[in-house]
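testing teh design pipeline on a random one, pls ignore if ur not involved
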């Protein structure tokens, strides 16, 4: 198997949503090998250790197998080992996950249907008392 490019590998193991985002992160210096910046076209080798800054936080990964195409999450996690130190791990993984997928956190933003009904009842009681 031909060694994949770094941007394609990071995209295929699902650290980035698109290959363009992976390339942009590498170009901006958010991906390093042994503390040194790398280029998106760098060939990935088994045993490489990469420090990656993503929207979820810092990750340190070790390449355990090469992967050329994007696959499902269950298959993708078999191709790298997450060796992130405990102090760099995200303290609230639920928040990082919801931020990454674009979903808003529950109970934030617009009120739920029940909350809206309770608010309407409360406001209508105040109007009825004035009449």
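output:
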């Amino acid at each position: 198997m031909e060694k994949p490019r770094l941007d394609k590998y990071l995209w295929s193991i699902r650290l980035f949503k698109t290959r363009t985002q992976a390339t942009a992160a590498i170009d901006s210096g958010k991906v390093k090998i042994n503390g040194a910046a790398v280029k998106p076209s760098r060939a990935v080798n088994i045993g490489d250790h990469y420090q990656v800054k993503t929207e979820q936080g810092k990750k340190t990964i070790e390449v355990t197998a090469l992967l050329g195409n994007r696959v499902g999450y269950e298959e993708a996690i078999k191709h790298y080992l997450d060796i992130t130190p405990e102090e760099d791990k995200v303290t609230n993984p639920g928040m990082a996950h919801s931020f990454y997928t674009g979903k808003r956190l529950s109970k934030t933003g617009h009120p739920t249907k029940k909350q809206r009904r309770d608010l309407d009842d409360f406001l209508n009681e105040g109007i009825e008392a004035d009449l």
